[in-house]
Design goal:
This protein is α/β, with parallel strands linked by helices. It has 40 helices and 11 strands. The protein is globular, with a radius of gyration of 32 Å.
């Protein structure tokens, strides 16, 4: 191998030429088809022998011929402009010659200007023409695709929910990685510190949280580390990428976070790929979690599919045997499990997860994959069942740019003039009402867009409870629509022959329908699993009028429930459109009168436990010689319902919930303060006295230097969610507190920067220059400085990378961050580190890679010493040889 000085080249040229090599393979892989007879090579002139639908092939050829005629071109012109042979074009336009290859179809569509949905339709036709699917599998896939197009969220205008594709904006997921000793991200392990000044590790408390009954939040390590058991990796991925994974995934999001929409989109994409003949990795099946307990998997899948798809045109019943064999050899079923959190019993949820674990770890593991959607679950439930066998993801809310696009989609669907302008005014209204953060939740965005479309000049509601109240009022107005489409008129037309008494009785029932539905929601929330019609018709308000046959009355009530806008038919059963609607209505029923409201609030907010003296320093309250009674917040699983309860109670009586919440947050009760912070994030209105009590408690905790650093930071983290300005000030004070551990000081500064970068910027810069900080924490602080001043960040990183008093890994990390910033000083820093004999060979090799990435590869003289280093092992020598070969690659110098 020759070792000459590599000619200079730009980073763009290096990446571009090498990307060109791989792009061809990626393009090929992305369009690879299941049918092995396809001729995908450029210029291929043959059609594809079809085992699929000849009618689809005829339609494909017809559409291509029509597009050719519309373009006013001849076949010879099309062949010349597409670079295809005349024979290839002729065969593509002739239905008797077999379907066009994928490459041929792409080239013809490009020249003919076929794009968007028209191009997707051509791919679909080609897939049907070339893919020989069993008839029942094809029937399932086509029916499931129709069902997946329906939007799972309720629609008000024009009375029917829009197609999911018209509104849906693809979200992103963030993977939760097992944290162990990882403090920052997957690339930066907490294994370093300053070589000169290393702060002493924080001593462990004598009493663990478990012993003390401190109620440490789920998912927090019960040790002196005080770090989350599942640390979040910052990389955000497209949610669609879950389809390409090979493992089981648990996707969590809060109430209304978009879980059902995500699964429907994955279903539509997956079955679409299958029908188009793409090289799919799995065949998706959407199933509610509630059908899984107590029955074999194949039977549960068949029951759910038959019940759900019968109303979408499924002609033949699917038997359990259908799911016992893979849809194709080597292709598994992808089971999309929706609503695991809607199973209220922890034991039943455990049963579902245990069954999933048994399948993915059993002999049929290769035949099934699972993507499970749920609200956040206790870590113990997941760890004891799925363990490390499932990847865990958090479904991310919309960004503010996403929210604007979602608003434009809704307003365009409603046919409003100037949807762009309406969306802009909508965004302004959200900011004015302090709802911008709440509206990033997909369901909240859906409802708020509809409320704004109906009354654009009306101020938006102030709380989550008021949003639901206004939305439900809008839904009920549909029941009173004047004309033949109004439900009351239809009910009269159905029952008029039974006389005026029957009609009067029906009117009274319809007047009480909101109360009937609210009582049903309350019973459902309490665990009543009876069929909906049974639970409704046993109420006194829905009794059948004399002389009316039961079946006709049942039909009238069933139609009234569905026409309410709150319920829909799912798998043959009337269910609430969304779990949050059920929770809101249940809360409204619990507060139906002052006496019921008082009983409910007293029951929810008076749970207590005894706090013992040795746990006082962990909880943050003063030490006492005797135990005291400490109020604890409601269970985390009930948070959404409790939030609605607070909002409804305050709507009826502004002072109804305030005393309970104020007591919950007083006297350093950090659990109560955390509960209020979670409610504030949900969009619940926190009464001013309770917010003040929480702020005072959190401020008191953060000022107590005797408390462990984790709890002081936790108090600031809580306050920042309740009161942004006060929380930012507390975080800055903690970041400047040298008695705090380095990682907590950095996290405090980052929390402040997330809210107010201007205030936090000087603090981050000070941390990066502070020699008492751990070295890698200083590197991360310098990276944070780049958010507001890249020049200052560059200077800090150069100083860190050049500081021989720091450990080598931290210096290398500083160099990497310089490269990430694209700093012109990065090459000199990397060269100096590569030439430093004190560095181990693997770190010096890393510098060579960074220099190549910068487009400034080292010369022969610069890497000569490294090449002769006897410390290089065989693998490292092979790696260096590959790097040197890349540097002298003829592709790089244009040969």
């Amino acid at each position: 191998m020759r070792h000459t000085s590599a000619p200079p080249w730009s980073l763009v040229a290096f990446l571009g030429r090498h990307a060109g090599r791989h792009r061809t393979m990626e393009t090929f892989n992305s369009v690879q088809r299941v049918d092995v007879n396809a001729d995908e090579q450029p210029g291929g002139g043959r059609g594809v022998s079809s085992g699929g639908d000849p009618g689809a092939n005829a339609e494909l050829s017809h559409r291509l011929r029509q597009a050719l005629a519309d373009a006013g071109m001849r076949q010879a012109d099309l062949a010349a402009k597409s670079g295809m042979s005349k024979a290839a074009v002729s065969n593509a336009l002739n239905p008797d010659k077999g379907a066009a290859s994928q490459y041929t179809l792409e080239q013809l569509a490009r020249v003919l200007g076929i794009k968007g949905t028209q191009l997707k339709e051509l791919y679909r036709l080609r897939g049907e023409a070339t893919t020989n699917l069993p008839s029942q599998l094809r029937a399932y896939l086509t029916t499931a695709q129709r069902a997946a197009r329906e939007h799972p969220y309720p629609g008000v205008l024009p009375g029917v929910a829009p197609p999911l594709a018209a509104i849906y904006l693809h979200q992103r997921v963030r993977q939760a990685a097992l944290g162990g000793g990882t403090r920052w991200d997957s690339a930066d392990r907490w294994t370093d510190g300053s070589a000169d000044i290393r702060p002493a590790p924080e001593a462990a408390s004598d009493a663990s949280p478990t012993q003390s009954g401190s109620g440490a939040s789920k998912g927090v390590v019960s040790s002196s580390q005080g770090v989350p058991a599942h640390r979040i990796v910052e990389d955000r991925l497209s949610a669609d990428s879950l389809l390409t994974r090979q493992d089981t995934c648990l996707v969590t999001a809060g109430p209304g976070g978009g879980k059902s929409s995500l699964l429907r989109t994955l279903l539509q994409t997956g079955v679409g790929d299958f029908l188009q003949g793409l090289a799919v990795r799995a065949a998706p099946v959407l199933v509610p979690a509630a059908v899984l307990p107590g029955r074999p998997l194949a039977g549960a899948l068949a029951e759910a599919v038959n019940a759900e798809l019968s109303s979408y045109g499924l002609l033949e019943e699917i038997r359990p045997e259908f799911f016992l064999a893979p849809p194709r050899p080597g292709v598994p079923w992808l089971i999309l499990v929706d609503g695991l959190d809607e199973i209220t019993s922890p034991a039943t949820r455990h049963e579902v997860l245990r069954a999933v674990s048994a399948v993915i770890n059993g002999r049929d593991a290769g035949q099934y994959r699972f993507i499970i959607a749920s609200r956040p679950l206790p870590a113990s439930e997941v760890d004891s069942t799925l363990g490390a066998h499932a990847s865990r993801f958090d479904l991310q809310p919309f960004s503010f740019a996403d929210l604007q696009q979602v608003a434009r989609n809704w307003f365009s669907h409603f046919g409003l003039p100037d949807p762009e302008g309406v969306a802009e005014r909508f965004g302004q209204a959200l900011v004015a009402a302090s709802l911008a953060d709440l509206a990033r939740i997909p369901l909240m965005a859906s409802i708020l867009c509809q409320l704004h479309a109906v009354a654009p000049d009306k101020p938006l509601p102030a709380s989550r409870g008021q949003i639901y109240s206004d939305f439900i009022s809008l839904l009920y107005k549909r029941q009173h629509t004047v004309g033949v489409s109004g439900f009351r008129e239809q009910a009269r037309a159905t029952l008029h022959r039974y006389g005026s008494n029957a009609l009067a009785h029906t009117e009274r029932v319809l007047d009480h329908l909101p109360d009937v539905i609210a009582r049903l929601a309350d019973r459902r929330y309490a665990g009543d699993t009876r069929p909906t019609m049974t639970a409704v018709l046993t109420q006194a308000e829905t009794s059948c009028p004399p002389g009316v046959p039961d079946d006709e009355w049942h039909a009238v009530i069933g139609s009234a429930l569905q026409r309410s806008g709150l319920m829909t038919t799912h798998a043959g059963e009337l269910v609430f459109l969304h779990q949050t609607l059920l929770e809101y209505l249940a809360a409204r029923h619990a507060c139906r009168n002052p006496a019921a409201r008082a009983r409910t609030l007293e029951k929810v907010f008076t749970h207590a436990r005894w706090q013992w003296p040795w746990s006082a320093d962990i909880l943050g309250s003063p030490r006492r010689l005797t135990p005291r009674r400490l109020l604890i917040p409601p269970h985390h699983d009930d948070g959404s319902y409790i939030g609605f309860l607070i909002d409804v109670a305050q709507e009826q009586d502004p002072d109804a919930a305030s005393p309970y919440l104020q007591r919950l947050a007083a006297d350093g009760n950090i659990e109560g303060c955390r509960f209020l912070a979670e409610q504030a994030q949900l969009g619940t209105t926190i009464p001013a006295p309770a917010a003040r009590a929480a702020a005072e408690s959190c401020a008191s905790l953060t000022s107590r230097t005797s408390l462990r650093s984790y709890w002081r930071l936790e108090a600031a983290r809580i306050l920042i969610r309740i009161d942004h300005p006060s929380g930012v000030n507390l975080c800055i004070r903690l970041a400047q507190d040298t008695s705090m551990r380095s990682d907590w000081r950095l996290e405090a500064a980052q929390l402040a920067a997330d809210i107010d970068l201007h205030c936090a910027a000087p603090v981050l810069a000070a941390l990066a220059a502070d020699p008492t900080m751990y070295a890698n924490a200083r590197v991360h602080a310098a990276r944070g400085v780049a958010q507001f001043d890249e020049e200052l960040a560059t200077s800090l990183l150069v100083a860190l990378a050049s500081d021989r008093g720091l450990n080598r890994e931290s210096r290398v990390n500083a160099a990497r961050r310089l490269v990430d910033l694209g700093s012109p000083r990065a090459a000199a820093v990397c060269t100096a580190l590569m030439s430093d004999d004190a560095f181990p060979s693997y770190l010096r090799l890393g510098m060579v890679e960074l220099l190549i990435r910068l487009g400034a590869p080292p010369s022969e003289d610069e890497y000569g010493d490294l090449l002769q280093d006897p410390a290089l092992d065989t693998r490292e020598r092979q790696r260096l040889a590959w790097l040197l070969e890349e540097m002298n690659d003829p592709l790089l110098d244009g040969n």
